[in-house]
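Quick log. Single chain, no ligands specified.
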Amino acid sequence: MSRRCIVQTPGIVCMFDSLYTRFQSDGSSHLLEALPSPDDLQWIPQSVIDGTPEALVIGSTDGEQVIAIMTGGIGAALWKLRIFTKPPDSWLLSAITVEDCLDNTFRQPFEYLLEGGTDVNRRLTQLIKYYFHERGHVDCNRSGNVEDFIYRYRLTIATVWKGIHAPQVGVETEQAEQDLSLAKDEESTLLESNSNAMRVGAAVNTSSELSDLPDSSLDITTDDASDNWLDKQSNSRDTSSNFPRSQLGNVLDREKDPRDSAPISTIENVLDSKSNRTPPATPDNSLDEILNRSGTSSQNRSVPTPVNRLQKDPTSDYSKLKSYLAECHCLYLLDNLPRVDELHFEDQHTIPNAQSKCLWIGQHKETKASVWAYMRLSGKSHEIVYYTGAYKRPASELSRRRLIHPFNKVYSSQSGIDQSAQARLNVLVRWYFISSDMLSSRSLVLAETKDFPSRLRNCLDYIASKMGPAAAKPPSESDEEDAAGPVDDDAEPNHSSALRSLDESHIQSALSHDSSPIKGKLRSGAHQQETPESVPESAPGPRDFTTDSDVGDVDFRRLTGDPAIKEQELTSDINAMLDMRSILNEQLERLNEDLESRLEERRKIRRRLE
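-> predicted structure:
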């Protein structure tokens, strides 16, 4: 069935021989038989890198091949995986990491490992090493825990088996249930026989596993080889039965790290092609059409209209924020945003301590890997985290993705997503979670973030300035008086009394704010989007509230050092600095919590070693 190793050293075994024997004895041979033969893959002779004489082609990117080469020497602990990009007609190799190539196009069977959570790195390394072993280039002779080796490889191979057979027999199959049962038995045996050794000296059982990975990947795998790894395995075994099979899959999802997972139903287009799902986009799946407007059809909307329910609850964050914006004469700025039912929320069960939904905000240009926003409890407050595919992404990297409106209006294309832009993006995501009426408490956000109203207003001002002529216009005074009449239960709350109580100078200051959009009459209920093609600057529009002379007067006052203009500029700077300070405080709080957790873990280990 497979290549056999020749081992002559006492105490040293070929791990793959043990794997083959176990699979034959427990009836799992079909897992290995389903793998493509090494001869069916593309191998390229190579002598540029000191390692295996052949390189394995695993994918492609931007017209270049992605190749894998094993370097090192005899013994599993010495073999290292190296991944490079190679131009078609030369050997000018560029080294990359496993994570760097996740957005590329993988070949079969490697593409099936993209849905493995944080273990994508290790599983891809395992499968590549398996093929190099079958090709006769590397051995796997070592001493160590055979059960651990078999358990990990069973999960990897079962993942590939599932991906290969999903289009024909679907995820729910009798054989897949048997594989899941076998993997659970393997896990129980492993945890019972090996837990003490791994808890006291994680390095004993992980040094060989870590050596299988690229150097840049060690930080990803270390957690899986320590107490956290055992805890995650135990927790996933206890709770996996509560998850729907359509989202968990079979064997692979029991070991998925919730920190680095995305909604499995729409994780990437490579998975969508297997499950006949489509990304949350327009009916014709054109991403260009959703960059400046929201992207789901009425059939795909997973969020019921929550606005009426929230408006009738005066204690909700939604009602309080609407009242605040009305008092600040900024309520019209919400018309620049798509309604919450025009965006796409997805059920999520993979991230603990997070809200039950996650928000789709865009996708990768080429791979169509979705970008999801989660609201997760961290310490005593919630934070916004972002995932692309199976990996957590910092907000600073999202500018390289194609975010939909209005999320692509919170940052400058020149500077990207800096700390101020990150604060605006987080505020905007929180606003949509508030508007969706999906939070565990309707007063959650304001209880955690006291200055959220001012930060929301600052974010809306910035979005309006980015939209330019396409932005909603502020209502004229006559419109405000008309809006003061009686309203029905489903209409917007009447804030005319609050508006009349405002100081008149405050209104004038707000109207002359430098970052406000061009002012004009507001058409009730209109949700205008940024469509420069359909709204040219020279096109006639509603009556302009601000004349050219007014604009020139503002510019003149700025040049002459008018105190009112200076005050507005200072206010904008102060808001940006407050946003930055809030981000730094959150990062410091999480750092202190993580430090305390690690110190406590080290104290426990030291007590066991005494």
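Residues 6-11, 167-173, 189-304, 480-552 have pLDDT under 50 and may be disordered.
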